[in-house]
Amino acid sequence: RRPADTEIDWKAYMQEVEGFANGTLDYTQLKGDTGPLVYPAGFVYIFLGLYHATGRGSDIRLAQYLFAGLYLINLLLVFRIYCRTNKVPPYVFFFMCCASYRIHSIFVLRLFNDPVAMAILFLAINLFLEEHWSWGCLLFSLAVSVKMNILLFAPGLLFLLLQRFGLLGCIPKLCICALLQVVLGLPFLLVNPVGYLTRSFDLGRQFQFKWTVNWRFLPEEVFQNRVFHAALLLAHLAGLGLFALHQWHSSKENILTLLKDPAKRKPASPRLTVNNILAWIVFVLFSSNFLGVCCSRSLHYQFYVWYFHTLPYLLWCTPTTKLAHMPKVLLLGVIELCWNTYPSTVCSSLSLHICHGLILLQLWYGTAPTSVSHTPPPSRKPTAMSKKSQ
């Protein structure tokens, strides 16, 4: 039997897009049982397609089959990233596929929009690894239009674009991201631009204490305090700055050289292998997202998918001895246990922060900085490289 709360979010999603299907273009009027629509326009279009495919949202079983297919596609995209970087031992893929009840629930049972955004994001990362930067930026922006958590990857992506293209070269890529947001939101922007922007990109939205996974050990008044939120934001920015200076950027030149044309920079010495360059790209993106998760104002249960598939990479991207494999597997197990504790407790939330802290320490002390040349890594089709990187 389907659990009683399975349909809550799905029904709310269908109610929100139903208004758009009926011709409502004022974003402030799109609502469901759980409250007003708070996602950007890409969410509306994708779930409108699901709305029509499932008989106005009534065929939940068909929707679950569709999300099961999305889950398999997501795994294939993640596996391809891991295979290209060659950092994670094969047995870890078992845990990624079979060991997380919570992830299976988020994808196939509860039908959240988070998996949709993450699947598009992983497709974008695959394109970055193939040097299709423009197409990757387009899909990255599409993922943001489904749910804004994808913006946690944005600092890392900006760093990569500056490193690869320089300031002037990365502006067209950023314009691609911005233009797609305008195109997708245009029907709503023409009717009520303020309403669309304030609802779909509300960075100051308050979260309910009863759903938090990571801050249960705090008093509720501290959890809701704006000073606490500001402190988390400062910690996030500080973490990004430190990683950008000491982990992402390792050249002997000043980090401001990223603003230069790549052809005018000093080439890295020695030259890196393709796998090392690809591994560095993934490390920058995944660590950028992980820093955001660690400093999040609140993590709800469906947010686990934001970083679950990146955890094995973050744990195994550092040099590992045979004896160190078991503690890393144990760390994955403890994190899984924390996310499967419902409702969250003081112990589970503290344990989650301890695990996050241990991963951060490993990334800081165990990751050897990589000097990356401005020259793009060779692909499987070297003759097409000049076209691919445009």
Automatic annotation (TrEMBL):
RNA-binding among the record's keywords? no
Per UniProt, subcellular location reads as:
Endoplasmic reticulum membrane
The transmembrane residues are 37-53, 65-82, 111-129, 135-162, 174-191, 227-245, 274-293
Q: What is its EC number?
A: 2.4.1.258
- UniProt KW keywords: Endoplasmic reticulum, Glycosyltransferase, Membrane, Transferase, Transmembrane, Transmembrane helix
GO cellular component labels: endoplasmic reticulum membrane
Instruction: Write down the InterPro entries for this protein, in alphabetical order.
Output: Glycosyltransferase_ALG3
Q: What is this protein called?
A: Dol-P-Man:Man(5)GlcNAc(2)-PP-Dol alpha-1,3-mannosyltransferase
Pfam assignment, any one: ALG3
Q: Which domain of life is it from?
A: Eukaryota
Q: Does the keyword Oxidoreductase apply?
A: no
Per UniProt, what is the membrane topology?
Multi-pass membrane protein
Enzymatic class? transferase
Which reaction is the catalytic activity of this chain? an alpha-D-Man-(1->2)-alpha-D-Man-(1->2)-alpha-D-Man-(1->3)-[alpha-D-Man-(1->6)]-beta-D-Man-(1->4)-beta-D-GlcNAc-(1->4)-alpha-D-GlcNAc-diphospho-di-trans,poly-cis-dolichol + a di-trans,poly-cis-dolichyl beta-D-mannosyl phosphate = an alpha-D-Man-(1->2)-alpha-D-Man-(1->2)-alpha-D-Man-(1->3)-[alpha-D-Man-(1->3)-alpha-D-Man-(1->6)]-beta-D-Man-(1->4)-beta-D-GlcNAc-(1->4)-alpha-D-GlcNAc-diphospho-di-trans,poly-cis-dolichol + a di-trans,poly-cis-dolichyl phosphate + H(+)
Region entry Disordered: which residue ranges?
370-390
Pathway entry: Protein modification; protein glycosylation
Its biological purpose is as follows: Dol-P-Man:Man(5)GlcNAc(2)-PP-Dol alpha-1,3-mannosyltransferase that operates in the biosynthetic pathway of dolichol-linked oligosaccharides, the glycan precursors employed in protein asparagine (N)-glycosylation. The assembly of dolichol-linked oligosaccharides begins on the cytosolic side of the endoplasmic reticulum membrane and finishes in its lumen. The sequential addition of sugars to dolichol pyrophosphate produces dolichol-linked oligosaccharides containing fourteen sugars, including two GlcNAcs, nine mannoses and three glucoses.
Q: Name one GO molecular function term.
A: dol-P-Man:Man(5)GlcNAc(2)-PP-Dol alpha-1,3-mannosyltransferase activity
